[in-house]
Design brief:
InterPro entries: AMP-bd_C_sf, AMP-dep_synth/lig_dom, ANL_N_sf. This is AMP-binding protein. It comes from Negadavirga shengliensis. Belongs to the ATP-dependent AMP-binding enzyme family. The protein is an alpha/beta fold. The chain has 2 domains: 206 residues, Rossmann fold (3-Layer(aba) Sandwich), CATH 3.40.50; 98 residues, GMP Synthetase, Chain A, domain 3 (2-Layer Sandwich). The strands form 4 sheets. It has a 13-stranded mixed beta sheet with strand order 2-1-6-5-7-8-9-10-11-15-14-13-12. A 3-stranded mixed beta sheet has the order 18-19-20. β16 and β17 form a beta hairpin. α2 packs across α4, α3 packs across α4 and α5 packs across α6. The chain is globular, with a radius of gyration of 21 Å. The relative contact order is 0.10. The mean pLDDT is 90.
Length: 357
């Protein structure tokens, strides 16, 4: 059985397999075309990478890879066939595409909505067994009273696309259901590891069944996973490997800043300065990066979204010098009116750096 509901119209998987989409809005036609191909047994599908560290690319993945990913997720959370799901993500990207595959593989009842910052706000029946969101959607929903209440009607909520801030992680702990941060990429056909956001201490990612984890000489994560076609994937993520199926994420080697011979992982330092950012630049997005420097090779700098604020920039630099080791203190604060984003709504650091002033 199973079905996809769009608005007030419910389409059974049998109807979708037959191409019977009467009354379907044009914006969902591509979605249903993919579902039709899946239900008819198509063997390969073309997916687009997010472009978080470079130009987006197209890759081909097999039906079996996507099935293995969907079934591993169902086993991890002990979800049942016929469960109720919500897809509120961009279905052109792997996260949204895999919500469709999971629904079809689990014979689920899937509600499909246009992605918005408040996806729960206007739903008739807001109870779901499984929902995936990006941090922006979780943040907006936590801040709106009605949506905050509706979040408690979700049994399992996974958050992907970008790391959560410490503040948002603390807010997520108050939710009634299970809440997990995901780790994965298009090449692994969505997530291969999940971290319980309600657990205390560092965020520990645990691999899905069948996934084996290792590190290379630079502590970059190496993944062997059936959903990756049993290939060995060399990532650019630096981790503390706890076991062959668990790790703590530190940052991406792509963004490593070599300042005077000292290698700095910006994402790790970003987590340390979050209290200062909340004090001096509340509600603003930011990141640390390296800028060319004649003396150091690269100098660590802070990039903040929004209007220039020289006064608070000075206060921040002064306080950060007290908090951080001398090699990790940003040398300057840059302001960018609007950050560049990838199609999957991650901050595009490389593009944003081009607009520094």
């Amino acid at each position: 059985m199973g079905s996809i509901k769009v608005g007030q119209q419910n389409y059974s998987f049998e109807a979708i397999r037959g191409g019977d989409w009467k009354g379907l809005d044009s914006e969902f036609e591509k979605v249903f075309a993919f579902c039709r191909d899946w239900l008819r047994g198509e063997g390969e599908f073309v997916l687009r990478t997010s472009g978080s560290t470079g130009r987006p690319q197209e890759i081909t993945v097999s039906r079996e890879q996507m099935r293995l990913s969907a079934n591993a997720t169902r086993g991890f959370f002990n979800l049942q066939h016929g469960c109720r799901m919500l897809c509120c993500l961009n279905t052109e990207m792997i996260a949204g595409r895999m919500m469709l595959v999971r629904a079809m593989e689990w014979e689920a009842e899937l509600l499909l909505v246009t992605p918005t910052s408040l996806p729960l706000e206007n739903l008739d029946n807001p109870y779901f067994d499984f929902v995936a969101m990006v941090p922006m959607q979780l943040q907006a929903s936590m801040d709106k009273q009605k949506s905050r209440h509706l979040l408690d009607n979700i049994r399992v909520l996974i958050i992907g696309g970008a790391p959560l801030s410490d503040v948002l992680r603390e807010k997520a702990k108050s939710l009634k259901g299970e809440v997990y941060q995901t780790y994965g990429m298009t090449e692994t056909v969505s997530h291969v590891a999940l971290a319980n956001l309600k657990a205390e201490g560092p965020l520990v990612y645990r691999a899905l069944p069948g996934v084996n984890l290792e590190v290379d000489g630079e502590n970059r994560l190496v993944i062997q996973a059936p959903m990756a076609g049993n290939r060995t994937l060399q990532t650019q993520d630096v981790v503390d490997l706890l076991s062959h199926n668990s790790f703590v994420w530190k940052g991406r080697v792509d963004f490593v800043v070599n300042s005077g011979g000292i290698k700095i992982h910006p994402e790790e330092t970003e987590s340390v300065i979050r209290p200062l950012m909340h004090e001096y630049f509340p509600e603003r997005r930011y990141f640390l990066t390296g800028m060319q420097d004649e003396l150091l090779g690269e100098a660590l700098v802070l990039v903040v979204e929004g209007e220039e604020d020289i006064t608070n920039a000075g206060h921040f630099l002064e306080k950060s010098a007290e908090m951080l080791g001398r090699f990790h203190v940003p040398k300057q604060v840059f302001f960018v009116r609007k950050f560049s984003m990838t199609p999957s709504q991650k901050i595009n650091r490389l593009e944003t750096k081009k607009n520094l002033r």
